[in-house]
């Protein structure tokens, strides 16, 4: 049976997500909660159920399958809405095939040296000792630089882009107009960028996608624009959270940090455990059943909103023993932090590489890196979707 009561069972989710998830996992496989937009949704928290649901073709990402009045997400104009996060096959398959070529392990590996150079440059700017908010000066700046380099976004627009993204990730309920303004600004910016790239193509991903689009019917103009938006937005946001959460987890677990410093070859495996332990997203993108579906022992009606908790699944002790313990020695493979199935994160190889390099450069540079605040005073973004820090004050 689904757990329902007058009080939202996930009411304290923002304040203490992992404790709430533990309680929800223990009491029922699926819970009726107030979703990210305040409307009712079904929350799935157990590893096996979440993993199966992520691969279930009956759970659609296409908002047109939502019941009228049921789901009210971020309203984007059509030119930004035709993206992979709102699509099912066959459109999803066709577009993903084009994008995946940019993120093959081989192509991503070619970015290793430039990413390391960017990381070193950012750390040079901090000087040999002092204090800083590591999110602003490093964890956010590195991914925005990398993704903008990849797409070919000029330097002078990168700060704007970051401020628009922040508004969309964590909308301020006091300023409903701000989201609309950010979307309009981003649309205008991308429209002009595509015009510029058509005039003067360069060796970047956006020029490649335009070439594909202009060669035939492979991408509509809206799909091209939406794709540029998604790669910029998701490619930046998830990696910021992953790097920030990684540094925090290591600083809060000095024995694990010491083990990693002693054997830097463990970094790639460490990134997997970091993603499992405190990944960049609490929830996968919402789904809508095409027909009544059974998850756990609960039947969810067609068209209602289903939220799959990646982070609750990753802390499920039935899949990862002693799951609340941060342990760089564990086998964290099979975690769901970057999704599973056909909607698995396209940019996962890049996010992994950036996090690995960001940590490597940081730990080499600053042997005495330390938190400049009490662990419980660390402030998280007030977002049910993304799991990331507002700031990470450190001394070095």
UniProtKB/TrEMBL annotation:
Pfam families: p450. GO terms for molecular function: heme binding; iron ion binding; monooxygenase activity; oxidoreductase activity, acting on paired donors, with incorporation or reduction of molecular oxygen. InterPro entries: Cyt_P450, Cyt_P450_B, Cyt_P450_sf. It comes from the Bacteria. Transmembrane segments: none annotated. Keywords: Heme, Iron, Metal-binding, Monooxygenase, Oxidoreductase. Belongs to the cytochrome P450 family. This is Cytochrome P450. The lineage of its organism: Bacteria, Bacillati, Actinomycetota, Actinomycetes, Kitasatosporales.
